[in-house]
């Protein structure tokens, strides 16, 4: 209705802000439904509606709030689609809009909470996606204090609690990216505590349960990196329990069971006793739109887990055959966003690495060398802004070096 009013010549601020809030809410809904193109379109339209009014003298608090909300949604969508630079700019504009309401004097707690949320996503884009960890850490620490001050004044402020959780989650990832795992775990603990408090206040909040499950996944990954596999398995299973109790979030965790099965396979669990990751994944795959990139890519993710399990059990020939079939399927997959293109390049790198490792263990060192080179080429197309990304690339290069050495030895060029 508001859109129709504007089409008929209604240029009032009241109509524009109402439409802006509505479009921002639609963007949130489309995000939850994994309809990302519609999410970005709704947010972009909201910004386009509100921006001309913001250029006028003395914009109202309502307009500033609507503009901050729309910019947050738009910047988030750009970040997640691979347009990090544009996303960061819009998230900073969102922070500016919210700050201008009361200069963070906390006379308007909603504006301060909006500022904290926009800051949380800016921490993610600067740290995890652009490698600007110092700037991201500074923004995160400052905005976490803002969220904490809101909670001191109003302990049950849901938006502030959510924003604080998102910020400490971003700070945890920064520490993990710099291989400070203990510090990352400290922030990760805060993240879990925030979401546990959140779902206690609102037990029916699906997003809260989704993020709590994700927090346990992050904790599990940290424990696994520290070699604490028993604790890692416990955290992964805590996440599985949450997903099983909240089936509407299964699409976001379709591959979770594979993390458990891989640890089990690598620690000598009998194959018949592995976690049934395929059965766990299927409802999540079914929940994704048929024919969508997300569903096709996740389905390939399950097949990738199959190959990793085969490699763990020394079934190299079977894994190699399956990996070559996966390459053939990948050639028919089309990407429409930068994020999808990056996912494809990473997926191809993994497949080539699997073939290289299988070939190496089968004594086909020439194939191992050529496939390792291809895996490195795919990885080098991706941003290498964090230490874990650089370590991952180094692991592929070590496999290449080992294959080259074996080829040279076979030719009598390398001493035994």
Strand and helix layout:
Layout lengths: L1 H6 L5 H20 L3 H19 L6 H20 L3 H19 L6 H21 L3 H21 L4 H20 L3 H21 L4 H20 L3 H17 L10 H11 L10 H11 L5 H20 L3 H15 L7 H24 L3 H16 L6 H24 L6
Helix pairs in contact: 2-3, 2-4, 3-4, 4-5, 4-6, 5-6, 6-7, 6-8, 7-8, 8-9, 9-10, 10-11, 11-12, 12-13, 12-14, 13-14, 14-15, 14-16, 15-16, 16-17, 16-18, 17-18
Question: Please, could you describe this protein's structure?
Answer:
With 416 residues, this protein is mainly α. The protein has a single domain, classed as Alpha Horseshoe (Serine Threonine Protein Phosphatase 5, Tetratricopeptide repeat). It is 78% helix and 0% strand. It starts with a helix and ends in a 6-residue tail after the last helix. The model has no long low-confidence stretch (mean pLDDT 91).
Give the CATH topology. Answer: Serine Threonine Protein Phosphatase 5, Tetratricopeptide repeat
| CATH H-level superfamily | Tetratricopeptide repeat domain
Q: What's the CATH architecture name?
A: Alpha Horseshoe
What average pLDDT do the residues reach?
A: 91
Terminal Cα span? 79 Å
What is the highest CATH level, the class? Answer: Mainly Alpha
What profile does the largest beta sheet have?
Answer: none
Low-confidence stretches: none
Tally of contiguous helical segments: 18
Q: β content, as a range?
A: under 5%
Helix amount: over 70%
């Amino acid at each position: 209705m508001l859109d129709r009013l504007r089409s008929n010549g209604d240029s009032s601020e009241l109509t524009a802000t109402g439409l802006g809030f509505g479009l921002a809410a639609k963007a949130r809904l489309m995000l939850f439904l994994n309809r990302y193109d519609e999410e970005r379109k709704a947010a972009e339209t909201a910004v386009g509606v509100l921006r001309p009014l913001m250029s006028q003298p003395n914009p109202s608090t309502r307009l500033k709030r609507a503009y901050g909300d729309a910019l947050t949604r738009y910047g988030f969508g750009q970040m997640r689609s691979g347009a990090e630079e544009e996303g960061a700019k819009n998230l900073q504009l969102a922070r500016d809009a919210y700050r201008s309401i009361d200069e963070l004097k906390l006379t308007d707690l909603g504006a301060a909470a909006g500022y904290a949320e926009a800051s949380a996503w800016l921490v993610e884009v600067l740290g995890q996606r652009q490698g600007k960890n110092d700037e991201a850490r500074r923004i995160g620490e400052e905005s976490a204090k803002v969220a904490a001050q809101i909670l001191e004044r109003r302990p049950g402020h849901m938006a502030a609690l959510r924003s604080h959780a998102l910020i400490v989650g971003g700070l945890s990832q920064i520490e993990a990216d710099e291989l400070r795992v203990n510090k990352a775990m400290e922030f990760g603990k805060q993240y879990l505590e925030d979401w546990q408090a959140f779902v206690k206040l609102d037990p029916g909040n699906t997003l809260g349960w989704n993020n709590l499950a994700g927090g346990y996944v992050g904790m599990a990954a940290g424990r696994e990196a520290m070699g604490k596999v028993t604790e890692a398995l416990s955290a992964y299973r805590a996440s599985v329990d949450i997903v099983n109790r909240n089936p509407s979030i299964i699409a976001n965790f379709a591959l979770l069971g594979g993390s458990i099965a891989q640890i089990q396979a690598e620690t000598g669990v009998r194959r018949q006793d592995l976690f049934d990751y395929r059965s766990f994944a299927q409802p999540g795959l079914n929940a994704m739109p048929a024919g969508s990139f997300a569903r096709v890519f996740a389905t390939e993710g399950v097949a990738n887990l199959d190959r990793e399990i085969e490699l763990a059990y020394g079934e190299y020939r079977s894994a190699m055959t399956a990996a070559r079939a996966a390459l053939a399927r990948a050639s028919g997959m089309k990407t429409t966003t930068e994020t999808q293109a990056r996912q494809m390049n990473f997926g191809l790198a993994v497949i080539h690495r699997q073939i290289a490792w299988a070939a190496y263990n089968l004594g086909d060192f020439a194939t191992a060398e050529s496939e390792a080179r291809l895996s490195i080429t795919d990885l080098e197309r991706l941003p290498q802004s964090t230490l874990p990304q650089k370590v991952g690339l180094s692991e592929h290069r070590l496999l290449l070096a080992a294959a080259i050495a074996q080829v040279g030895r076979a030719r009598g060029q390398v001493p035994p």
